Amino acid sequence: MTAAALPPAYPDAVLFDLLTALLDSWRSWNRAAGSEPVGRAWRAAYLRLTYGCGRYVPYEQLVRDAAAQVGLPESAASALEADWLNLTPWPGALDALRALAPHSKLAVVTNCSTRLGTQAAALLPLRWDAIVTAEEAGVYKPDPLPYRLALDKLGVAPQRAAFVAGSSYDMFGTAAVGLRTYWHNRVSLPLVDGARAPEIEAPSLDALVPWLARFGHRQR
To answer: Are residues 47 and 92 in the same domain?
Structure first.
């Protein structure tokens, strides 16, 4: 039987980064910053702080600290939070989630507070099997703990799950846990030095469901 003729073989679970892989949070950061270049610089500073701090520091504080690093007032962080419920899914995100829901458990693993993570996850109208935030895990990604906590909640082994990343920082954590990874690189971010390349990198989610439908057919 050819690969094209094989029946679908989805993973038992698919884990998602929330704020960059599924939701267009970049637009909110840019609006709060006043321009795209400043918003990009602010977000980059935040990512460095978040992925470098390890143990959980309040997300809202890291956003303020990153704003200060790029010369933005504290009011920018307040504007970002005020815009939180206006976050919108990337094109194709809802279609992909709805296509996967009959086949795989779905979970979020996100670097933010439990309050904001729960609010953002609720902007995607489906039933999540697990929502794990950095606050709940006590550490930020790419520490392996948040990913493992989600897998434990789902009762799924890492080799039977996949992760959809929005930033290549996630690849440090997914490599440590053993999660096959799809990088939804919507805004053409560079691969972070030292990060392992994902199995697929794409500027959209169009290839996600076909890739996952072949999950169980990969030659070991």
So the answer is: no
Half-sphere exposure of 183 (CA within 13 A, CB side): 22
Q: What is the DSSP letter of 2?
A: -
Side chain identity, residue 17: D
Domain boundaries, position 142: 3-24+87-217
Contact 154, 160 (CB under 8 A): no
Q: How far apart are CA 65 and CA 82, in angstroms?
A: 17
Q: What does the chain come to in residues?
A: 220
Q: How many other C-beta atoms can be found within 10 angstroms of the C-beta atom of residue 193?
A: 6
Residue 215's nearest CA partner among 63, 11, 1, 26 is 11
* Beta sheet of 13-16, edge-to-edge order: 130-133, 105-110, 13-16, 161-165, 180-184, 200-202
**CATH number of the domain that residue 101 is part of:** 3.40.50.1000
Surface-to-core class of residue 46, CB atoms within 10 Å of its CB (0-12 exposed, 13-18 middle, 19+ buried): buried
Kindly report, residue by residue over 131-148, the tens digit of the pLDDT.
999 999 999 999 999 999
pTM as predicted: 0.92
Are 101 and 201 part of one and the same domain? yes
List pLDDT tens digits, range 88-103.
999 999 999 999 999 9
Q: If you write DSSP's letter for every residue of 49-99 in order, what string do you get?
A: HHHHH-B---HHHHHHHHHHHTT--HHHHHHHHHTGGG--BPTTHHHHHHH
Give the tokens for residue 64.
């303020």
Place of tokens 């439908």: 213
